[in-house]
Amino acid sequence: MNSMMEEIITHLDETNLNAVVIDAKNDEGNVTFSMDRPLVQEAGSVQVLVGDMPGLISKLHDHGIYCIARCVMFRDPFIDEVHPEWMLPDEEQNVYYDSQGFSWIDPTNTEAAAYLMDIVAGCKEAGFDEVQFDYVRYATGVSEEAIGLNGYGKRTAITRFVMNAKRTADMLGIPLSLDVFGTVINSRIDSNIVGQEYPRLSMFCDYMSPMIYPSHYYDGSFGTDVPDLHPYETIDGAMKVSIRSFAIANPAGNRKQAKVRPWLQGFTATYLKKYRKYGAEEVKLQIQAVYDNGGDSYLIWNPSCKYPWDAFKD
Question: Do residues 44 and 191 both lie within one domain?
């Protein structure tokens, strides 16, 4: 176990935090630990970054820490070289590459879906407590003409994939959570672009984790001039539209819906023209907004894994 993980465990023991999110299939399309799964082996996508994942999970469990496997779903800059037929096409029907040079798996491809579910099974075998899908969406720049789907078609495709994935997760006995854009909660335009229909997806997973980072909202959102400057008000507004969205989709309250466990901002958005330094106070304000809207759990993100640990000691 590396020193960073040892440090994180020490901090977790000192706070009221009780979970970690670990990359199982990362942003480069690689599976990060040895996985004896046939479709994973056939794809050759394993690049061992964690030498003994079951051992690491066992160590975390010894400290009472819940282990979530993050799996990047459709953005995949590795698998296009192995299975180009699995990928989204561009206007010339070649493999589509986004502005950052990443290729994307076609959510409607059944062979690709089987491969992704093989990874889910591998996460369960390693001892993870939950699998979390990230990038379970369409690329924002892909042409609707190239893929032959409009907004409705994309939303239907993503929902169908998640429905089938939930069946697999249930058979394996592992909870499923989804990372989704925060803006899709109340923007049909954004929902159509990426194919994430927030309230409908909530029917087919155990946890919804909208990424409601204040820095990611347009100026003026939720009555704020610059959302990043107002961590409480932004999270409060996002949680309220989430509650309304769930109620509209399930007015009788008789259908099971996922718990909302949002991603909160643990970083300072220095790339903005106007930004606020996010330390313990700003993190606490976001957490309080979650609690004030009936939430009881959250996830916190900083790309460097450096957190204001004092924010979690009360």
Answer: yes
